[in-house]
Amino acid sequence: MERRAHLAAGFRRVLLAEMRQIGARPGLMFMLAPFPLLLFVLLAVVFQLGLPRDLPITVVDQDRSSLSRQMVRIIDATPEVAVTQEEGTLSEGRQRLLSGQAYGVVLIPPRTERDVLAGRRPEVVLFYNNQYMTPGSLVARSVGGALGTVAAGISIEARVARGADVESATQAVVPVPIRQSALFNPSLEYVQFLLAAVMPTVLQIFIGASAALSFSRDRQGVAGLGKSLRLGGTLTRTAAGKLAPYTLAYLLVLWGADALLFGPMGARFGGSLTFHVAYGVVFVLASQMLGAAAALVARDTVSALAAVGVITGPAFGFTGITFPRLSMNGFSDIWADLLPVTHYLELRTDNILRGAPLDISMPAFVWLASLALVYGGVTLLLLWRHGRPRPTQAGEGAR
């Protein structure tokens, strides 16, 4: 009992000292919870609609026929795009595309309706800005689908006019119907796709930076890390006491972001809550250990924060959310494997969206836990190295 009380006392001393340090620095206190939560609220406001809608496009209708007007109406009726301007020439439409006032230009050439009635195949052209891949892809898909519907309707009407019944005409136009089933995110909402991935990725930067700041601050102080080690008594108690307030704060932030997603944002939760909490805790610990190790390797606080930023800043590009990991090169794949958020997002997707059984998620969970252990071991080793008495200090103590 006495040993256990002594261990608890060492942890408590380091914890109270760290909380006093946080209280003395309003900027650090603001970074713990208010700033991440404020950032998450702003992101939620951006993604509140779930899907991009009414993306502006321009139509250049050079036919001015009933068929061309029907095409424009059907295109404008799609929820993803909106015909905001009709121009007379392609150069005018091109100018709107280049100026960023439209994401696409639909060109309906002259004599389109006459060619259709004569059995010829006129060509309606879509120019779209794919520099922005998400709106460009949405415009291409929506306009292509709308024009495909018009073309199918014209073909069916032509066959019916030649004496075929509606069913056989439809089968002739679409001989092999294709049924598409979008799994796990059938509404294609960006709340489940981007927002749920952006939030933990941003939070990883805050977690790593605060851990780096905590250890680097003590390391650069007059007493160095030796003071913290004397308060804690052991390496483990010292590291645990220093990181405990940050761990609790960022877990509350992570769960607060989830409450925002699954509450007001209406995202679906289809997995195990216990498992979700478990890999969330490991994610926060692994991110902290990464930041602490960076602080104990770097020369000063600025270098430590820069190292954390370089390591975790590009994380979103390596997680496989926007670009598939199977298509990445070896360097990108290794970088992704070394980031805690990569495996956290994999576990999150498997658990919440896919409802995958635990045995499928275990490899990612074990890898995430291994990162926490490896980064934690490096932190403890460097903490021991920086906290041990220097030869000159030991000699002075002996005299």
Describe this protein's structure.
The protein is mainly alpha-helical and 399 residues long. Helix content is 69%, strand content 6%. Strand 1 (55-61), helix 4 (66-77) and strand 2 (81-87) form a beta-alpha-beta unit. The chain folds into two domains: 2-47 and 189-398, no CATH class; 55-173, 3-Layer(aba) Sandwich (abc type-2 transporter like fold). 34% of the residues are buried. It has helices spanning 2-23, 26-32, 34-46, 66-77, 90-98, 112-117, 133-161, 166-173, 190-220, 226-232, 235-262, 273-297, 301-312, 315-318, 330-337, 340-354, 358-387, 391-398, and strands at residues 55-61, 81-87, 104-108, 125-128. Helix 9 packs parallel to helix 12, helix 9 packs antiparallel against helix 13 and helix 12 runs antiparallel to helix 16 (340-354). The chain has 18 helices and four strands. Strands 2-1-3-4 form a four-stranded mixed beta sheet, with helices on both faces.
Task: Summarize this structure briefly.
The chain has 399 residues and is mostly helical. 69% of the residues lie in helices and 6% in strands.
